[in-house]
Design a protein that fits this description.
The structure holds 2 protein chains of 2 kinds. By secondary structure, chain A is mainly alpha-helical. In chain A, 72% of the residues lie in helices and 5% in strands. Chain A has 18 helices and 2 strands. In chain A, a hairpin with a 2-residue loop joins strand 1 and strand 2 (84-92). In chain A, helix 3 packs parallel to helix 14 (335-355), helix 6 runs antiparallel to helix 7 and helix 9 packs antiparallel against helix 14. By secondary structure, chain B is mainly α. Chain B has one domain. In chain B, 79% of the residues lie in helices and 0% in strands. Chain B has 15 helices and no strands. Chain B has helices at residues 2-36, 45-57, 61-79, 84-105, 109-124, 131-139, 141-161, 166-191, 196-218, 223-251, 267-280, 287-302, 304-329, 343-361, 364-375. In chain B, helix 3 runs antiparallel to helix 4 (84-105), helix 10 (223-251) runs antiparallel to helix 14 and helix 12 packs across helix 14 (343-361). The longest helix of chain B has 35 residues, at 2-36. Chain B is globular, with a radius of gyration of 20 Å. The chains are: A mainly alpha, B mainly alpha. Chains A and B meet through strand 1, helix 5, helix 6 and helix 18 of A and helix 4, helix 6, helix 8, helix 12 and helix 13 of B.
Amino acid sequence: MIDLVRAALALAILAPLLSVAAVIGLVLLQQRAPSERAVSRLVGTGLVTSVVCGLIVLAGYAGWFAAPIRGDVEFGSWLRIGDFVIPAVLLLDGISITIALFSAFLTALVARFSRTYLHKEPGFVRFFTLLGVFATGTQLVALAGALELFFAGWELIGISSAFFIGFFHERAEPVRSSIRAFATYRVSDAGLLIATVTTFELLGSARFSAFSGAAALPAAQSTAIALLFLLSAMGKSAQLPFSGWLPRAMEGPTPSSALFYGAVSIHAGLFLLLRVWPVLEVSMIARTLGVIVGLATAVYASAVVRVHTDAKGALAHATLAQVGLILAEICLGWTTLALIHLVCHAFLRLGQYLKAPNTIHDSHRLGHEHREIGLLERWSPNLASRVYAASLHRLRLDDRIDAVFAPLLSLARGIDRADRWLRRVGSFDRSSG
Amino acid sequence: MNDMFNGMTDGLTSSLSAPWESLAFCLLLLVAPAIAVSQKRRWHLPSLIVGLVVALFASSGTVAYAAVAFAAIFHALDAAPQSRTGAATLAASAVIALAVAAALYFDLLTLAFGLSLLAIALRAGVMPFHVGVASLCDHAPVVQTQQLSSTIALVFVHLRFVDHHAAAIAAGPALVRYGAVAAFTAALMTLVQKDLRGFYRGTTAMHGGMLLAGIGAASIGNFAAALLVAVTMGLALGGLGMMITSLEERVGRVMFSGPGGRVSAFPKLAAAFALFGGAGIAVPGTAGFVADDLLLHTLWMESPTGTVAVILSSALLAIATLIAYSQTFLGKPASSLAPDLYLHERVVALVLLVLLVVLGLAPGVLLEPADAFLSGPPTGPG
């Protein structure tokens, strides 16, 4: 049974990747682009295989046919040089199986939906290729037993997300939005990378199973690591002050918006915090900050969602409000509630996003809901109008983030000018840039 | 008896395979541009190959550095018609390599170490020693790709012959900090470039800084990490340089004045550019990811602040790479009569990409023999 579960674990991650490799092979070998049917079948097979493997893993974990298999499942080492080892280890526990299965199932579902939705769309092959990359990333994130593998999956999710946002690249706005989302990801990913290296050095291993040793660390060290994990989760899950990229991310195709920003990717930051809970648990500062950020994001998103006029933008902020609440739940220590909330929320939002294009049709059929005067408007019309105005420009979050990074860009331009001068002075060429 | 035989076999394999593997990467980088880009002067290739073989297999540091100098002179001759600054830099690095050879002959290890670092800084384009390499990137991109091969050889020779003594260990933390600052500065500069060549210049300088930091951390035993960084830098930047050259042969100089919309005209070129760029910013599944991960762990031992600076540099370079890709390939489709990548260009790109992926998925192929070989005393390969 253990061999079957090991094979299923590996295949759950690799099957989507192999399907992507097959699509790339088709593209390279054929003179003309492969047919939609071939591409959707190849990637679809990879995704369904991932779901089936997830079920086998679940059977192994629950012990349906033999003794239950739990904890670290070893696949040797990715890299070993002297004492330094990057282990190829996957982790089987309740959280990992829940996330792996539900994300595999939702991705397969979205792939089936997209086959019709994106029929004759010029980027059909690109969409399915990215979907396969994303599925590999989510499975890796869900099942990784060490931070290095987790980070690899985390990066794949980020990269596919950026390319999905810029999917309709003929227009300038999606491209700008994809760069902004990617920049936010990379800056917050730096936090995860620093936390990975620090954890390895302090605990002697980046395995999640070694995180129980975090309690023995000095408070300053465990707090620093917990804050870095929190920073990374805030970026990936679009929590304040990094919320600006989420409404921009709605530029992508609806199925990818549903999968990324309704169901799976937006919850990845929360999953990270569940995964590193032993570190977070011992840091009261990080937990308090997490609760404040989560609740503030929930309030902010609830205010913005009331003034949004487009369906996907409103849904994005509604999602954000719930994600903020889940973050607060995790930091309060209600991890089981948070996991249940996360999964239920993902299913609900996926359905709502996929139905978003029908909103106009539905509103014609069902009529518009009459807007009631809110409690705040009755209590303080002045405050209500201020909240309304602030919500309309989303607290100018993007402008504020730009202002923070403006000095860095000025420094970059200064360095570039100095470099040009240096190259002009030190050049023997007739003309130099 | 059996154990002894196994030990001898393992020792032989490890001591033989490290130079052989490095040679394979170097040769690939040397020959690839000659195949992919229509290089007219190929007379120097056999001489360069001889130089690389001698450098990698010599059992004496003096001979190895002399061979590196020999190769640099040929690169300089090749670069001279297009980039006098680049040629002068390569010639200067040749003279310095000869000085290292002389220092090693007279057993002046500290002097050899310092001069060897200077030669590496010139060849890898570490800021502010990057003027020559920047000129090569601008005016002689083919030579730049080819000289990356002998830069790998130079790093190999440095790690093998001059990085094993007390001065190298003492200089480690300072080198790591210097390399990290150089990488961060270059990454910042790359972020605000206005053309594709500028992006390539900045990316090269950023990787140069990372390489120097890796060499700084190598002196306490992390030799394989530094070699992997050098090889990844060669493969990723070499591939990126060739793709940029191929694109500019078709459409002229690429300015970042707005989305270029070239992906519909050159889909394969765009894909190859994205993959090489991805390898350069440590996308999982490529050698860049493992190189970065390994490098960061080794840097941490010498300087945690330097490590943070390198991580931030990598993040900035990733953003710059996406901007460059967007400005070059995305946007409203631009029509072009020029063809996409030719078969020979595709084959070269594919080989480099496969190597990047193989090293990314199974880095032990290079790292384990390299670690076993370079960690030992600086003696002959077999």
